Amino acid sequence: MNGLQETLIETWHFYKRTLTLVVTGSKLYYAWCFSLLAIIVTGLVFYLKQHEVGLIATNMNDQVSWGLYIANFTYLVGAAAAAVLLVIPSYIYHFKPIKEIVVLGELFAASAVVMAILFVMVDLGRLDRFWHMIPFVGSMNFPQSLLAWDVLALNGYLFLNLLIPIYLLVKFYYRKEPNWKFILPFILASIPWAVSIHTVTAFLYNGLPARPFWNASILAPRFLASAFCSGPAIIIIIFQIIRKVSRYTIAIEDEALFKISELIAYSMFLNLFLLSAELYKEYYSQTVHIASFKYLFEGLHNHKQLVPWIWAAMTMNVIAFIIFLIPATRKRLATLNLGCLLIIIGVWIEKGPGFVIPGFVPDPLGEIHEYLPNLVELMVSFGIWALGLLIFTLLMKVAIPIETGEFSHVKYVERAFRMDEERQAWKSWK
Amino acid sequence: MGDKLYNRREFIRNVSLTALAGLSLPLFSSCSKEEAEDFLQKHFREMTSEEKKRVIAKLEQRYLQKYGRKFQISTKEALPETLWGYGLELSRCIGCRRCVYACVKENNHSRHDPQLQWIRVLRLKRGNLINLENSEHYYNPDLVPEKGFVYLPVQCQQCQEPPCVKVCPVHATWQEPDGIVVVDYNWCIGCRYCIAACPYKGRVFNWAEPNIPKEEINPSVHYLGNRPRMKCAVEKCTFCIQRVRKGRYPACVEACPTGTRKFGNLLDPNSEMRYIIDRKRVFRLKEDLNTESKFYYFFEA
């Protein structure tokens, strides 16, 4: 009885202190959170308008029936899957610098999945019927529909990427050795699961013979390759920001960032190689199926809206590849960051709008209808990105002090002198 | 201590619930009364006949209020030993689009901004047929047929292996025993995956709340066919399910001035469709995709 009461009180303390931790911060922290909130509210207002009048509020139509939302969804699934690039070196190969930050990477993946799911939700015409998709409650078309697979895969991945980091953080909060027999199977499961979320998302497009642009078997490998460029690039940037603004001294070593950037170099090579394999096949064989590629890369019947975008993306990807290939530029933070930014934008164009829109142009009856997102779609998208960033910020606000040992069970706080010792203990099991 | 703890917790709970309600209130308030009423409605195929009757009564009441007409809403099931097939004689089509507008009227399509159409007539330069990239969808001459062009009407091809049914994440669309692919407009979540999957552009989406002038409404409807639809649900040609299950021809077949359009039961050896398949040179659009469509194009022998 006494033990239970103590646990309850401690849990309450944990929540209370977490809340305090989240709502107190520097001026910069407040400014950041409130600007994100402002963007979220703006996005919500635009979404409400869309919800009221229907999807006619967007620029999508019967010709191009998916647009910016699904483009963002595709990109974010990839970014989320990329956490696996931290999981493998840290838990399998015990590469220490990355092990220090793997929990943060997993929380990043969780935030990215939340954004991906939200992008699907805002794209649904009938949000009120969302429950039709819930297994056992509605009538999910499993295993026939790849969208049903995606719902299961994404939610499973979200569960894993919340369970693993939260379990480890709570254990450290209480200064207890994690039960590896319990958590290791989940960690191991998260590796193939990361690959599966992006594979399933690729298959979602891949399985449509009506759309030759997507109906290429190289699609899933291409998706994974580009995801393993963009996701880690975002993580490298975010970790440096954390290192700069966090008042705790979190151990994010340059070496970890350089290791991640080396992985990006390999992935970008694969990405460019697979793309060129596809381009070769289309341009050498010159069948009618080349139409979408032509629309994307050179314009079709004088419709060339996407052409400058894709060439910009190609240029960025190639420059970034060179930066990441050469150890000297890879291992200098200035050039490293430039490369990351180029990859984040380049891959977004390539596998977001540059991948979704040409699938619809020309449409199956040969009609060419050019699509550009309108203000509603842009604002709703910004709102979701802001929400994801806010979720990630708040998670970091709690996770980092736990990682550094500043935020822990009450009885340890009073014995601050033991802190260093404890930190050593934490590091040794890691 | 305990007291204080309870109060605090209660405070936090109240604040968060209020915030949640406050956030979702605009969402609820932008739902119409109809949407709220239909929220928990079951999938059509899972309803008992009693539940179907209740839904029909509700809809009749609603339509009476909205359009001032008494509707007959049928839920008539497929006729036994029937598999509907369609024939279209390309050499006869003059591209007048009367089928398009007969369909719009019969099937209670949204009329203005946007006007939905289930039939699309493509104009192709003579010498082209399969590469639709060279087609014109919005030709608008004073007189048809135009010299040097042929016309290719396309609508839902009622595939026997429909890609749209396969991809629907919620079973909102399915194939009936008589081969017609239908949609439960009340079950569709509006994800538009079926539109991406259809090789024939056979599906259109209600991007906005559909509008039909009262005086143009067709009150003789089928639940899975031409009943008035709602915003953000998908819809498609049903071979005029409301007509063909009562032994009538689809509206487009009746409207065609040149006799281009044929219709019949593929399982009946004496039907017009079987006659055409046996004696004419028929082909189906995009046969290479193995959709096994039941829409046969043909030329005069």
What does this structure look like?
The complex is a heterodimer of chains A (430) and B (301). Chain A has 18 helices and no strands. The longest helix of chain A is centred in the middle third of the chain and has 32 residues, at 254-285. Chain A has one domain (26-429): Up-down Bundle (Formate dehydrogenase/DMSO reductase fold), CATH 1.20.1630. Chain A is mostly helical. Chain B has a domain at 84-119 and 151-299: Alpha-Beta Plaits (2-Layer Sandwich), CATH 3.30.70.20. Chain B is built from 9 helices and 12 strands. Chain B starts with a helix and ends with a strand. At the A-B interface, helix 2 and helix 7 of A face helix 1, helix 5 and helix 6 of B.
Characteristic terms for this protein:
A: 430 residues; mainly alpha; Formate dehydrogenase/DMSO reductase fold; 0% strand; globular; B: 301 residues; alpha+beta; Alpha-Beta Plaits; four-stranded mixed β-sheet
User: Which secondary-structure class do the elements of chain A indicate?
Assistant: mainly alpha
CATH topology descriptor of one domain in chain B:
Alpha-Beta Plaits
* Uncertain stretches of chain A: none
Mean pLDDT of chain A: 91
Spatial order of the strands forming the largest sheet of chain B:
10-2-12-11
CATH hierarchy, class of one domain in chain B: Alpha Beta
Per DSSP E runs of 2 or more residues, the count of β-strands of chain B stands at: 12
Number of domains of chain A: 1
Largest interface: A-B, 53 and 54 residues
Topology (SSEs and partners):
The complex is a heterodimer of chains A (430) and B (301).
Chain A: H1 2-23, H2 27-53, H3 68-81, H4 84-92, H5 96-99, H6 102-123, H7 146-173, H8 180-206, H9 219-245, H10 254-285, H11 291-297, H12 307-325, H13 327-330, H14 333-351, H15 353-356, H16 375-404, H17 410-413, H18 419-429
Helix pairs in contact in A: 2-16, 3-6, 3-8, 3-9, 4-8, 6-7, 6-16, 7-8, 8-9, 9-10, 9-14, 10-12, 12-14
Chain B: H1 2-29, H2 33-38, H3 49-67, E1 72-74, E2 84-89, H4 98-106, E3 120-125, E4 149-154, H5 163-167, E5 173-175, E6 181-183, H6 193-197, E7 203-205, E8 220-222, E9 234-236, H7 241-244, H8 251-255, E10 261-265, H9 272-279, E11 281-283, E12 295-299
Parallel strand pairs in B: 1-8, 2-12
Antiparallel strand pairs in B: 2-10, 3-4, 5-6, 7-9, 11-12
